User: What shape does this take?
Amino acid sequence: MILRHKLNVLVPLIALVAALGVLAGCGGDDNASSGGTAAGGGGSELTIVGYSVAREVNADLIKAFQATPAGEGVTFKESYAASGEQSRAVEAGLKADYVVFSLEPDMTRLVDADLVDSNWNQNKYHGFVTDSVVVLVVRKGNPKHIQGWDDLTKDGVEVIEPNPFTSGGAKWNIMAAYGAQLEEGKSEAQAQDYLTKLFDHVPVLDKSARESLQTFTSGKGDVLLSYENEAILAQQKGEDIDYIVPDQTIKIENPVATISESKHLDKANAFVKFLYTPEAQGIFASKGYRPVVEGVEPPASVKFPTPSQQFDISKFGGWSAVNDKFFDPEKGIVAKIFQSQGKSTASG
Assistant: This one.
């Protein structure tokens, strides 16, 4: 989608995107907006636009917020899809009051568009509301005996991974795989070669992390690269899966913010403030997200093992450097791999 037009082109585009957002309310997939969640009449209505994985936890967070004095009378509309797709849609005019994305660059896009305040990340949590790690999801009983990253490129192993040119989760997965090679003492050239071999084992590139989970649970593939919280949620829903937290993996940080032009900015800000309360962080933990607030413990059924060689995005110079080096759709490392394998680098 081209995002910077002359005014006479941008206005109808915005109208079209907004209309599609309304029409999506009739559907039920990750591109859909749910109906308002009632909490009493006469209050404010907030629109959440988020990455696909956030749907289930937000349902519980909304109910808990509505039970507080700040949330009394507030109703919600929701729209979920791939993180990059949602960020571009909001930039192009999709209505939102609160946004939650997979990774920071999708928020930075809206800061650059003057839709999110530049100080969105100035709280003690740097604007991140939850953490997670990349894990290897396998079939129940782990029939292919997957133990770590090296097993993903063995003959006969099929890996399910979303498209990094639409999905934020896919970018986390790729940087986890690349960084794991460096942690094992390999060179950058060897790590790039590993990515090439890895994508030789990827038969389909879904648009979002949630779509890839659905592909995997429908029976395709031997391993799914995914968020830890997605794996935990799948188990809670009764899916026949196990997952491995590799020794070498990346710390995932998920950003949230309010839209500066929101007509109900006070209520949107109150919702964000609520997300950092022990109650809300406990809800996140119950759904498999690692809390950012100290002292919040997950329920006994949820375990958060500490990877022995965990790293974060700063290992590679931060997201700006990573996007230029790896995910530029023309000259990035991953784009060149995709071009050599006939895979799509389209963002929409």
Summary: Residues 80 and 223 are 24 Å apart (CA to CA).
